[in-house]
Recover the amino acids of this structure.
């Protein structure tokens, strides 16, 4: 038996004893201020003070709501958390939270979306999930090809796949060299069934870059999630053949175009959320271009969103093509490399494959860049128009109704960004009117149990909009306490009376469906909602 446990128990006892030293601080600041400070460190909204229960249902939920608020607002919490984190991470190379994992050299790994199990070959996607992804990516490629637009889909590997030796010894890693196959490797093999689909193997280029430079020229941040510029450089090199074909005017950047400089990078680190300060920061080698970049980032993106970016090349000559990059938080490091190959690069931080945006910008190339977590965290049918085209006929033909909601009392406001009310005056169209004094409205939908394995359920929303707009269906998974903007289906709905359709996935909670209206929420008429079981 390992002797680590007694030391861990002693450490926990030390934390409890240390509480005696921080109790005098328990009265510092108001509860609201302490809750806000706690939420800021954890990068989330503070849990609100729960209202006193007035019904039996509210009474049942009150203890958990109070516990969440109290955990944020408790005086001295910051000192306790910091002490516990320092003992766990610095002394024991252990994690103080179940959502993170700490390696022997204090590298930190996130455990979301079973990422560590995925790279170890323990959480592969099913054939049905892989088939859905391939169908969606092939549909995107075909739709773009009809318009003369090239398409590539880039998956950033899990950090543990590139640095497996930094994992704790109790988690043996089986990489490709050991005959293991992770979630991403399995997906790449499956996607090869479409020979025209470009999904490069970034990990192979990462391993080559890692072997060719000093150890501290990290490809990923040791204490965070994202890749460094050298990791993005590997993705850029993986896209080399694609760029050579569709943006050939500019020669690719090589090793000679960069130098390695010593820096202490404090960005993208879990250390702050663990109240560790700068204790884990060390010097590392980062990329610095030896020559000026031709593409210049505009001070503000054309979209007006601070998470987006716009690049342009100045002067005459050079590339003539335009590209659109749709990305998650892994995109920004890659954008400067890609921008050199295009006259204009527009980047949007979104998980939607937005046909309306593509039609508006008319790029020559579309590139999507996402963490491999996207294979599980996102729905493959990220294009509203493509999903609607496939699901609408199946929904209309289905006769097996699982749930039907047509009375105003079946719905309730989930949350709003302003003051919203539901009303049901006499309506010639047989619906009730949604009245709102704010930009959006969210309706909670009472839904049945999840679809069983092998079943497909589609939810249809019968509604009338005054103008074309988007309607979103958010779905919560077990353990979620608030809406996650990554877990959403989006439907493009024309003006007039229409049926917006959404496929219900097996991971959605039965009580966790929320319907969201956009700009046209005011005056929208909702006539009913049905869930139908469709045939494959």
């Amino acid at each position: 038996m390992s002797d680590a446990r007694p030391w861990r128990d002693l450490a926990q006892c030390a934390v409890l004893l240390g509480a005696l030293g921080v109790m005098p601080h328990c009265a510092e600041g108001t509860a609201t201020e302490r809750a806000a400070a706690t939420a800021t460190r954890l990068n989330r909204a503070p849990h609100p003070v729960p209202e006193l229960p007035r019904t039996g249902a509210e009474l049942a939920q009150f203890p958990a709501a109070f516990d969440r608020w109290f955990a944020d607002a408790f005086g001295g919490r910051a000192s306790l958390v910091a002490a516990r984190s320092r003992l766990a991470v610095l002394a024991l190379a252990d994690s103080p939270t179940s959502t993170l994992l700490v390696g022997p050299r204090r590298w930190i790994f996130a455990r979301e979306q079973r990422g560590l199990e995925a790279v170890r070959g323990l959480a592969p996607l099913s054939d049905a999930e892989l088939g859905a992804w391939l169908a969606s990516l092939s549909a995107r490629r075909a739709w773009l090809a009809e318009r003369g637009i090239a398409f590539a889909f880039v998956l950033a590997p899990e950090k543990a796949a590139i640095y497996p030796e930094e994992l704790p010894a109790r988690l043996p890693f089986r990489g490709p060299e050991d005959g293991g196959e992770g979630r991403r490797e399995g997906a790449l093999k499956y996607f090869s069934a479409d020979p025209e689909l470009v999904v490069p193997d970034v990990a192979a280029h990462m391993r080559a870059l890692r072997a060719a430079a000093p150890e501290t020229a990290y490809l990923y941040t040791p204490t965070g999630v994202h890749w460094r510029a050298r990791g993005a450089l590997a993705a850029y090199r993986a896209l080399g053949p694609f760029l050579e074909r569709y943006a050939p005017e500019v020669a690719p950047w090589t090793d000679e175009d960069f130098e390695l400089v010593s820096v202490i990078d404090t960005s993208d680190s879990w250390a702050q959320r663990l109240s560790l300060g700068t204790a884990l920061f060390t010097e590392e080698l980062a990329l610095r271009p030896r020559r000026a970049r031709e593409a210049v980032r505009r001070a503000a993106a054309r979209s007006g969103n601070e998470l987006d970016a716009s690049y342009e090349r100045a002067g005459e000559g050079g590339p003539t093509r335009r590209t659109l990059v749709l990305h998650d938080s892994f995109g920004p490091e890659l954008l400067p490399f890609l921008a050199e190959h295009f006259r204009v690069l527009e980047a949007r931080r979104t998980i939607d494959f937005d046909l309306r945006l593509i039609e508006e910008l008319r790029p020559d190339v579309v590139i999507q860049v996402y963490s491999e977590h996207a294979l599980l965290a996102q729905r493959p049918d990220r294009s509203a128009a493509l999903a609607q085209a496939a699901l609408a006929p199946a929904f209309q033909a289905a006769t097996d109704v699982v749930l039907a909601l047509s009375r105003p009392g079946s719905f309730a406001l989930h949350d709003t960004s302003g003051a919203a009310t539901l009303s049901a005056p006499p309506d010639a169209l047989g619906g009730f009117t949604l009245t709102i004094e704010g930009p959006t409205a969210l309706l909670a939908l009472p839904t049945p149990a999840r679809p069983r394995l092998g079943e497909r359920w589609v939810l249809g929303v019968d509604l009338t909009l005054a103008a074309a707009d988007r309607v979103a269906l958010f779905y919560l998974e077990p353990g979620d306490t608030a809406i996650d903007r990554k877990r959403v289906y989006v439907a493009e709905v024309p003006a007039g009376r229409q049926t917006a359709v959404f496929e219900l996935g097996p991971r959605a909670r039965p009580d966790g469906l929320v319907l969201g209206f956009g700009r046209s929420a005011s005056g929208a008429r909702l006539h009913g909602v049905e869930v139908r079981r469709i045939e494959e």
User: Anything to note?
Assistant: The first helix runs from residue 4 to 22.
